[in-house]
Amino acid sequence: MPQVAVPSIDTELLDLAQEEIPLVPRPYAQLAHQLDVSESFVLARLKELHRGPQAPIRQIGAIFESKALGYETTLVAAKIPPARLNAAAEVINAHPGVSHNYRRDHEFNLWFTLAVPPDSRLGLTKTVEILHKTSGATATRVLPTLKMYKIGVKLNLSGTSAARATTPARHRAPSLALSAHARQIVRVLQRDLPIVSEPFAELAAESGVDANELLATAELFRRQGIMRRFSAVLRHRELGFDANAMGVWVVPLEKQDAFGAAAASFPEVSHCYLRPSHPDWPYTIFTMIHGREQSQTQSVLTAISAATGVSDYSALYSTHEFKKIRVRYFEPEIAEWETEFAAI
Of 14, 196, 253, 264, which is least packed with CB atoms within 10 Å of its CB? Predict the structure, then answer.
């Protein structure tokens, strides 16, 4: 995949934008102040960095905590006959709640994340059953998060790995019953933030509130744990981070929390989760590492093993990205998919 050459000032801007877009009426002016440049410069550079399907910025918007919104979520691993892998990925991608879908170099060769809303007529289990049947998978394993030790991809654009100040996971917010008005604000905040001087004013006009109320609600969502952050999401492959390793570890029950904390302490680890094992899948802790070269990600896995004393692990590298989007919460597409496939 072609990589994007990023000048140093753009690197600084991307570093700030992926950390946080300030929840203020003129957020780009605040970024400009931090960089000691003009607001017009920041607007021009962000527009260029967000232009086209291979631009460094994928989206600017709210990153919500799915479970706090009442959604059921899981990671799913599937075994697909190689000859029909592309067709299976297309079937699975058609579900609006599938946000990530990758081919990985393992017998379980297709890995996707799935979310269904609180009012789903099918629920998570039935949805996975339908996707198993329609994709032609020979085996499907459901791997929900049992415990989160760390989450948050923040690429270190000036270095060689994803060694940026990722934050250990906070306590997950409980699922909240949101009002119809709050759901509408969620719908608006999840949209791509316009790159204009007062972008929240444009979003506010769509949500039926003024900009101050929209920003106050967004800040409330953040304090409640409903929204993790408001920031730019980058295309890591286009920026040269295409050695995407999912390190999976066999960790005894009594050592899992200590291992999770130790693995999460590595700045190169962006995600660290405890998930269930299966007879044909003994791994319980998952660590995600994004690097520029496999040798870099492998060195991190080796260091984790040395630090924890856990030597039974595997590295699954993504070899193709079939889908990577943000889940669109409280939109009608999932209900429409369920109506179409309910009879299967």
Answer: 253
